[in-house]
């Protein structure tokens, strides 16, 4: 149940970027879109709450200057339009 809900959130985020959901589109956005990569790791770290996923999430946030704390409650379709920000904090 937990994994399905996590996949639903990630799929809805991807749908906001491209309008369709497929493995090819996922790979494209994961590799080339910093905003989607941060939102992906935010979803994974939020749902699984283990040290490895939290570390990867914080590393991606630090690398792309996007701060989204794991405790945030964000609904379906998260879209980060400008992947590399100037220190914005969503708390």
Keywords:
4 helices, mainly alpha, 91 residues
Structure overview:
- The protein has 91 residues and is mainly alpha-helical.
- The chain has helices spanning 2-18, 23-32, 34-48, 51-64.
- The protein has one domain.
- The chain is globular.
- The mean pLDDT is 89.
Write the layout of secondary structure elements.
Elements: H1 2-18, H2 23-32, H3 34-48, H4 51-64
Helix pairs in contact: 1-3, 2-3, 3-4
Q: Overall pLDDT, averaged?
A: 89
The helix tally amounts to 4
The unreliable regions are none
Percent strand:
under 5%
Count of discrete structural domains: 1
Compute the CA-based radius of gyration. Answer: 12 Å
How far apart are the first and last residues' alpha carbons, in Å? 27 Å
Q: What series of H and E elements makes up the topology?
A: HHHH
Main sheet attributes: strand count, strand direction, barrel closure: none
Please bin the fraction of helical residues. 55-70%
What oligomerization state is this entry in?
Answer: single chain
Q: Total number of β-strand segments?
A: 0
Secondary-structure content class: mainly alpha
* Form type: globular
Quick gist of this model?
With 91 residues, the protein is mainly α. It is 62% helix and 0% strand.
């Amino acid at each position: 149940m937990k994994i399905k809900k996590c996949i639903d959130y990630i799929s809805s985020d991807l749908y906001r970027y491209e309008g369709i959901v497929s493995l090819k589109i996922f790979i494209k956005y994961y590799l080339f879109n910093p905003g989607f990569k941060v939102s992906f790791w935010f979803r994974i770290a939020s749902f699984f709450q283990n040290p490895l996923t939290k570390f990867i999430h914080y590393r991606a946030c630090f690398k792309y200057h996007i701060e989204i704390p794991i405790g945030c409650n964000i609904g379906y379709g998260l879209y980060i339009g400008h992947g590399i920000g100037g220190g914005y904090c969503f708390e």
